[in-house]
Please model this.
Amino acid sequence: MADPVGTGRHRLAELTAAAAAAEVPPAGLCRDLALAYEKAGDPAAAMRWALATTDAGGDLTCWTAAAGVLRRVSAGAAASVVSPGAAASPGAAASAGAAASAGVAVPARADVAAAAGGAVVPSPVAGHAARSARVALLGSYTTAQLAALLPLAAARAGVAVEVYECGYGQYRQEVLDPGSGLYRFRPDVVILAVHEGEAALPALAEDPERAVATEVGRWTSLWEIITARLGARVIQHTFVVPETEALGHLALRTPGSRSSMLAAVNAALGRAAAGGQVAFVDCERLAATVGKRSWFDPRYWHRAKQAVSLAHVPTLARHTAAVLGAQLGTSRKCLVLDLDNTLWGGVLGEEGLAGIALGDGPVGEAFSTFQEYIGRLRARGVILAVCSKNNEADAREAFERHPAMRLRLDDIAMFSASWEDKPTQIRRIASTLGIGLDSLVFVDDNPAEREVVRQLVPEVDVIALPRDPHGYVRAVADYPFFEPAALTTEDTARTEQYRARARAAELAASATSLEEFHRGLEMVATVVPLDELTLPRVVQLIGKTNQFNLTTRRRGEAEVAELAADPSTAVICVRLADRFADHGLVAVVIARRAAEPGGAVLDVDTWLMSCRVIGRTLEDEIAGLIVAEARRLGCSSVRGHYLPTAKNALVADLYPRLGFRPDPAAPADAGRAAPAGGPGVAPADGTGAGATRWVLPVASALNRPGLIRVVDARAGGAAVASASARTMEEVAG
Amino acid sequence: MVQERLAQVFREIFSDDDLVVTDATTAADVPGWDSLAYINLIYAVENEFAVQIPDERLGSFANVGELRVCIEELSDVG
Model:
């Protein structure tokens, strides 16, 4: 501790030496280097290693730490850029920050190379932020981790992003409501990160075609609104067909099975989007690749509503970023191929045309298969170049004469075979083809060639091939930054017809306003008694609800039970269900009758709702229930409190919105008078500042949207159990 | 042993090399410890110790000490 700078240097030297031991340093090491360089005050190197973490596999913990480095370094760089233009928008500032870092990237690299004995420097990444974008992440599950990783993944794909995350599960409401945070954010790109549970399809449908068409329409109508009203591009995550299927193998020949319909919806969405402003991340394929049981972990679904297990959120972020980059034009364009032991086995110059392994035997087949895959990349638009240390005439002859050769000379846009070093050849390839070095991806079986390219042409991405050729296809296929934005114009024209046809058929049935959406949900709120069955859930909500919570008073089971037993207390517990899901017990109100000089008042001690049901007008219906309780207890008015916390700004204006007026009897500093124990007891109780008090006479008319049917299922309540379920109008009318 | 590895996981999750973690540490003691960090932490702990914390114990830890005891019970590395 005597010399923190010296200690830091020592740490850096240690880490750098460790990194030198592997061609691609493990993710944990990349992360540690990023943190160490950040500490050492070298933002360019910190950013480079943070981005290298994403290429090194990296688990969620590594990625999250690396994302933190990128965030802090970008913010620091942006702050130090003295340019009013760059400071005007965070997106621009982030990209300016990346550019500023790029400016010092070269000397920093030299330092690292020297310290590492010239061995290891990851693929360069600082300064890749060729584009910037405002990205809205609209999810149907907990997307906080994905939102945290997206800036890192996007920076790796060459895009500096500012991310907006919608409230939990609020994606549809935010798209339909022109007053939502989404519209204020003005996104360039909207990512619909949704999971299969969000598809409104039954386990078994009688009319599967109609069910599929309706579901497709629910999504295409969202796309329409996003493109028309927000002018944003859409990136849609496809639905992962669950690996559990009650129908077993029969599901495949049952068009009405949920599995069949989900697959049909994915396919139909693909047709509807073809050629348009909508791109996909094919989560179905990603999930199948890693294994669906690994992709979805029920433990984390039940714990935290993670529909993609945390182990795979980095993969999802990486692929989402690749698609984002493709949409914004940062995808790589050209694959630069070595020849000996890359496109065929053996060294042509030594073994001759007849001696190389290609076509026959397990090794020869593996090389042929690799060539076929490269050919498919070529067919869909990737430019191919050859970069080989060979006699050019011999190398060309192999393409012309070897019978098992899958690639032809005219597949190769630039054929560079000479005895020059590869960095020189690569620079010439780029200048001849007229594309930037940052459009190139280099593939070579020789680690030394890969390393020299990483060192001397850091803009080029390098794919490390595994030892055996059978792994080559996967090594290249796993590289995500060749993602194409579209195929050729002819393809686009053809698919546009599909798209128009699909849209016309599907739009008709879909909600395009928030109110229609709410009506379509067929929501039913059921008021249930507080009893031994509901008490645990009520206490859980009281203990953990932060956002929609007016007073944030935490209470234990015994305390709640005692309160509820008091005849002057009203407890309202509400379950909410809709056409798609039963959300369970989601709202709790505790209110107490207080005798006061001007007449009895119902004092709302606690009012909270689960974030699952925010934005569905349930609060308006509950206000009606509170007024009904006030009448039942002989109160002339209802009094509400808002005690601000770090997390409940959402409901700061709830009472005035519902028609409550400021309480004239409130003390000058209402918060201090609040019966919640005051500062120091529990910060969440509100520390006084900003607390407000509101009143509403019970005679006031409440403006209720009437989008939810309210049923009172309390025994001994106004309506006895199911005998006569009464609507909200009747209960509170 | 478990205590030290656990402290290292905390330092990684909260990106703070100097974070001091004891049995008595609670969420209130660590800046940035919110529900998101908690889930990330549990995930990292489960990976580090190769254990699966039972569903019913997940929300039950009052402090780091209780989490440590749970890990020790599950992994027999106490």
